[in-house]
Amino acid sequence: MKHHIANRTATALLCATTVIITGCSPDRTEAGAKSTAPTPKTRHPFDTMTPEQIDDQAREAVKNTTSMRLTGQANSDGRQVVVDLAMDVRGSCNGTVGDSVNTMHIIKKGSLVYVKAEKDFWRATFSRGMTAEQTEEMVAHFTGRWIKPPKTMSERYGRICDGFNGLIGGLSPVSGGTSTRAADATVGGRPAAVLTEWTPTETTTVYIAKEGKPYLLRATVTGGDEPVDLTFTDHNKPVDTTPPPSDQILDPTTLR
Question: Which stretches of sequence are listed as region Disordered (predicted)?
């Protein structure tokens, strides 16, 4: 199982032990009465599958997903990116993406894009090609407000949300016959099967839902140069693309 995960996606797990109580001390009973025998533990279909077969189940579920929310962090080219973004197959999105300093909130539906960010983000944006005085003037206008960017900026920012199909393709597990199944875990309160694969430099671990459809819930890549820690939720849940209140939106084309 080699998991080609967008931006080398992966996640930290929330691990819990399931305790099953199968019996208790009997109450006083009539002579000859028998205690009820413990109820056998029901086996999950995954328990009869190989890791590659579980992997195939997850791949099929991912392929048919129309939306999801991803939260966590990844490291690319030495830069840590933090993300909390709901995306769908139509290119809509709502959430935040950035690093520890420059974080942007984006809402996108169709060609409509709205973004909101703080001083450091806009200062970095406008410092290229403007004087320091011009930059600070623009920062003052933009900071803390929803912006409806002009076409070129909208297209650039909107690309953050246009990659859902690529993300799905990247998340699709590709069985290579080298995965192993570890002890089950829980992710966000949901039981999950855990599959792990090692290379000489990295360990990839994925957590696949055992209740409902076998969606990918979390994934981690540790070791190597690009560690990742991501969680996947809200599968097939509509993305909230409600525009910000009109009185909170700035149209930059109205500025001199």
Answer: 26-49, 230-256
Burial of 29 (0-12, 13-18, 19+ CB in 10 A): exposed
**Tens digits of residue pLDDT in 127-178:** 887 888 988 988 998 888 999 988 888 888 888 888 777 777 666 554 456 7
Smallest CA-to-CA distance from 219 within 2, 47, 1, 5 is with: 5
**Encoding tokens for residue 201?**
């430099």
Can you tell me the distance from the alpha carbon of 125 to that of 221, in angstroms, rounded to the nearest whole number?
31
Check: pTM over 0.90? Answer yes or no.
no
What ranges do the domains of the chain cover? 2-13+50-254
Question: Of 221, 219, 229, 233, which Cα lies nearest the Cα of 189?
Answer: 233
CB 219: neighbour CB atoms within 10 A?
A: 28
The answer to whether 150 touches 252, Cβ cutoff 8 Å, is yes
Residue 31 near residue 81 (C-beta atoms within 8 A)? no
Class of domain 2-13+50-254: mainly beta
